[in-house]
Amino acid sequence: MFQKNIRLLSIFNFLIGFSMFAPLAIIYFSKVSGSYTLGTSVFGIIMLSSALFEVPTGIWSDKVGRKYTVVLGSWARVLAFVFYAIGLSYWWLVVGAVFEGLSRAFYSGNNDALLYDTLADEHKEDNYDEFQGKVSSTEQLAMGISAVLSGLIAIFSFHYLLWFTVIIQASLLFVSYFLVEPHFRKKLDTNLLVHIKEAISLFISNKKLRLLSLASILSYSISELKWEFTSAFVLTVWPIWAIGISKTLPSFGAALSFYFSGKLIRKFKAVTILLFDSVYGKVISFVSLLFPTAFSPLLMSTPSLLYGVGSVAEKTLMQHEFSNHQRATMSSLNSLGGSVGFALMSLVLGGLADSLGPAKALVILTIIGLPVIYLYWRIFKNGRDLVAI
């Protein structure tokens, strides 16, 4: 069961990443809706939908099981891309966004918990960082490959991209049925409101988890939105056929970073990596966006070499702090904050881009994300070995 789930999760993540549509989503959404504001609002709706369903799906996972939570998420994902592909108007995109948000909510927390519980069955949970990095690297690899192809296919038709993506997501749904439910998970048997209250109390009482969560929420709200919107900036300095390349380079860099994350975390310590990643990424953003040239997209791809190891470091620290019977719920509560933050920032970014242009809008977004550095510095200051603060 252990090897089978690891193998299937690697394939599953590859299929999630192999989306021809993702690198050009902001361009397609803005084209269908008529403006950057409405285009970015689709991302906001995705995150609001995800936020709405985060806690219920996390509780569902803890109560019913990890496997069928993945299956339901995959069904929602297929439906989302069907509505995107039809795309007759902005409202078709909205319906697709609601389904994609539901899918993300099912996956959020649950998929990490599935991996952790699978490892726990074999008493290998201490190696979570290594396996998390390896199964996540396949998604980034797929994103890099699909990004190259997407730019070329987009020259002929966006709709080809979308319907091909629908086929890939149907394959992902097929794979999800072969996952094996871990035995380690302790089924939820308490009142749901009590369960949520207990999970929230752990965030409040655990200072290290609280700082990590705040940093994670703000970082996700900013960095994920920047990733989705960067194509709009790249379009101002590169032709449309080359936009895929701007996604390929960071995806390949992130794939390497994910794959070697376990070794890097053990050598440099998780919070040191998180702090350096945050500082370096923001410096590069300021340089690339304040002085935009044809080299900017290449420069902006370099932080990807830290993205994978930073992501795994964050998840590893949180998984060690979560309780076993509330693992998915606690992760979903954290994701809830990130989703709400993303939704709010998407409205801000869209309005700024329409009035100031993509580059200046992204600069302002980077400034808003500066407090993340302080939060990681607080954790770093209180103990490099990450003993509980």
Automatic annotation (TrEMBL):
Top-level taxon: Bacteria
Topology in the lipid bilayer: Multi-pass membrane protein
GO molecular function, one term: transmembrane transporter activity
Keyword set includes Endoplasmic reticulum: no
Segments traversing the membrane: 12-30, 36-56, 68-93, 160-180, 239-260, 272-291, 359-377
Record-linked Pfam families: MFS_1 (PF07690)
Keywords: Membrane, Transmembrane, Transmembrane helix
InterPro entries with a match to the protein in the record: MFS, MFS_DHA3_Transporter, MFS_trans_sf, Sugar_transporter_CS
Compartmental location: Membrane
PANTHER family reported in the protein's UniProt record: PERMEASE, MAJOR FACILITATOR SUPERFAMILY-RELATED, TRANSPORT PROTEIN-RELATED
Protein name as it appears in the record: Major facilitator superfamily (MFS) profile domain-containing protein
Organism this protein belongs to: Candidatus Woesebacteria bacterium GW2011_GWB1_39_10
